[in-house]
Amino acid sequence: MEVKRELSQFDLTNIIVGAIVGADIYIASALTAGLVGPFSIVLWAVAGLFAATIAIVFAYCSYYVPRVGGPFAYVSEAFDEFYGFLTGWSMWIAELLALPVFAIAFVNYLQALVPLTPAAEVAVKALFIGSLTFVNIVGVRAAGRLNDALTIVKLSPLLLLIVAGLGFFLVRPETVIANYTPLLPLGLDNASHALVLIFWAYAGFEIGTLPAGEVQEPQKTIPRAIVSGMLIVTLFYLLTNFVLYGLINWTELDQSTVPLVAAGTILFGSAGALIMTVGALFSVSGSDESGMLGSARLAYAMAIDGLFPRAFAKIHPRYGTPYVILIAQGAIAFILSNVGNLSGLISFAVLNLAFSFLLTCFALIVLRGDDGANLRGQHLLPLVGIAICLFLLFSTTTFDKVAGVLVILAGIPVYLFYSPKEEVHHLKTLFLSEEAVFLRRLEAKETYLANLLDLIHTALRRIRRPGSREPGGR
Fold first, then answer.
1. Residues 360 and 58 sit within 8 Å (Cβ to Cβ)
2. Any transmembrane segments, and where (predicted)?
3. Single pTM value for the model
4. How far apart are alpha carbons 245 and 236 in whole angstroms?
5. 9-458: CATH number
């Protein structure tokens, strides 16, 4: 069965928005308060521009290399499998680090409802990671349907916060003026590091870029969809943070581990705190569930290429999921959740992401123009992307730089040991089939903000054509 290549600009925009917006907004908003104060709102806009630039680079790479594998495939095609492996290795490390981040955030927001002892925190992290690992092994499809059903539960608190917050500012403008004055109380010394932490919230666009063979008129559709998607995400992030920094003074935000609960309390009292807490718990759980499967899939792809332990390619005989790597990731995430902290884990994740993005930008320089494609900005954007990635790498902490070099170098003996091994051909053929790739992309779409866009799009379409039926509709 051949896959129909009929993804429109709206479809691709929806996938990109859904791939980016998750629980990050519950986590990242307060991390920069003590670094740059309310000037963080400006950095959220800058980070959106950074992410959009690199996202278009990814999309153009997918045009020239229209197959599964993401940056691993792009860099391997442009250079060789060694550099492709280092790209996939650093991206896998970055995605792996997101798992303990969400475990820590889940405990922080749960503390807003139920005080936990240190021992109870460890137990909750173990239960949280263990249950999501179990769900990914035995019930991914059921979990996806549940995630769809809970979309409104996850999104409503943030939309409520935005609407109520903007209404509050209309009644009491002096509050927002006071909390935004001065805009830059701490200077710009820590602005670059703050930008690193904010950039993490935009990560996910690399998942949303599809092989161009599945998209209508890819030369026009891909860049337009990415620009549209990034504008929607950036607007959503800016509105949420504008309300947050307008309601709460930056000095108080700096001390908060649950910033949106504090904002909900100001607007709606204890009921608001409960609403924001429940929304955060559902969002964090959903994001970690999808992130766990995504990082496992990347490790699985490298394993069937013969570049990771063969055990990582083992499929559960009953459930058809890569259970070995899922269990291994769960164990690593649990350990890191008890020894790491939010800002440290996020900063190190961005360093690894920036390294893989850097190699992808170089790959586009090599790949572009092979078939005379007229992709707008394909000569300039990779150069801008390289500058952005170098800036992000430079802006991480000294510890991150040293540890990052060691982690990347640690990938070399892994490659040297496993690269002579044979590919797991039958698994690779199944995994890379066009139909499997297409279905995985649609199933993996995070429905956090994307479903809302889908509902609005459907409603508008029916208003324009009253009484008409969708083609093939029942």
1. yes
2. 12-35, 41-61, 82-110, 122-140, 152-171, 191-213, 225-248, 260-282, 320-339, 345-367, 379-396, 402-418
3. 0.80
4. 14
5. 1.20.1740.10
